[in-house]
Amino acid sequence: MTTSEPVDIDLAAGDAALRLIVAECFGVEVPTFQGEGPSCGHPALFIRLSRCNLTCTKCDTKYTWDWSRFDPRKESTKRTVVDLLAWATSSPVELVVITGGEPLLQQTRLVPLVRGLLAAGKRVEFETNGTLAPMPELAVDGVLFNVSPKITSFGMDEAKSVVPAALEAFAASGRAAFKFVASSVADLDHIAELANAHRLAPVWVMPEGTTAEAITAATRVLADAVSARHWHFTTRLHVLAFADARGR
Ligand SMILES: Nc1nc2[nH]cc(C(=O)O)c2c(=O)[nH]1
Ligand code: SF4
Ligand SMILES: [Mg+2]
Questions:
Q1: For residue 10, what pLDDT is reported?
Q2: Where does Mg(2+) bind (predicted)?
Q3: Torsion of CA 86, 126, 157, 244, to 10 degrees
Q4: Which residues are within 8 A (CB) of 50 and not within 5 positions of it... i.e. 6 or more apart?
């Protein structure tokens, strides 16, 4: 759908009133791109849900879960499915990225949202940490999962962040790209072990960093070794383009 006409989406009244805990929505008023992964560079809208089940030390969205530093009452609002659909369908942009935090913590309530987005002609990408298997109702045509398992060098205990059954469910869905953040060639060896152990493909590598300088430096360190493995590489376009500004 390329118009911004209001669309009549047939949601059950109970579904329309369901509320999601949202950190921020962006891309309508101030346009942006999907900055990462297979759709890097595509115009995109973002719904960032609040709350996470992990506590990565290198997390760049701690305002979604770290209540020792942030106030949940200031950093989150409850928004209905119908309100989020009205917001997204006010824009002609086709791609809606649902991120977090960990969006699949709220996946039951995401089913009617995703259904409504698809009915309105949108396509949907999830940014997920890969610890929670997706409900079959979410793994449908028009939906892709950018699954980003958090490795030790990202500041997370893999006993918590690598959940084999969930990773294998994503792989079996045929709708997942496995996007690993890396900063060294040693990280790539470890990513290869995980990918082999859990049969994760396709593998995407993304340089760690929240400044253009850090992204460029990590890209130079990683690019040859990623291409030698015939893996995919993505930058973080929003960091390069918008200096990692919140809401871009
Ligand atoms: N432009 C832009 N692209 C993104 N892709 C994934 C993001 C995320 O925070 O999950 C993100 C983000 O925050 N901004
Ligand atoms: S999984 Fe993602 S949102 Fe959650 S703590 Fe780690 S980096 Fe942050
Ligand atoms: Mg981000």
A1: 74
A2: 61
A3: -70
A4: 21, 22, 23, 64, 65, 72, 75, 76, 100, 101
In this prediction, the answer to ipTM > 0.90 reads: yes
For the segment 88-147, what is each residue's pLDDT rounded down to a tens digit? 999 999 999 999 999 999 999 999 999 999 999 999 999 999 999 999 999 999 999 999
The binding-site residues of ligand 1, defined as CB within 6 angstroms of any ligand atom, are 32-36, 97, 99, 127, 238, 248
Q: Please state the rounded mean pLDDT for residues 55-68.
A: 98
CA-wise closest residue to 32 among 49, 52, 48, 50: 48
In Å, the largest CA–CA distance within the chain is 53
Integer Cα distance of 61 and 116 in angstroms: 27
The pLDDT of residue 8 = 62
Q: Is 53 in the pocket of ligand 2 (CB under 6 A)?
A: no
Judge if the beta carbon of residue 188 lies within 6 A of ligand 2: no
Residue 58 main-chain phi, psi, to 5 deg: -95, 15
Confidence of residue 6 (pLDDT cuts 50, 70, 90): low
Cα–ligand 2 centroid distance for 136 (angstroms): 23
Alpha-carbon distance 132 to 105, whole Å? Answer: 8
Sign of CA dihedral 41, 44, 50, 54: negative
CATH number of 13-178: 3.20.20.70
What is the C-alpha to C-alpha distance for residues 161 and 56, in angstroms, rounded to an integer? 9
List Cβ neighbours of 159 (8 Å cut-off, separation of 6 or more): none
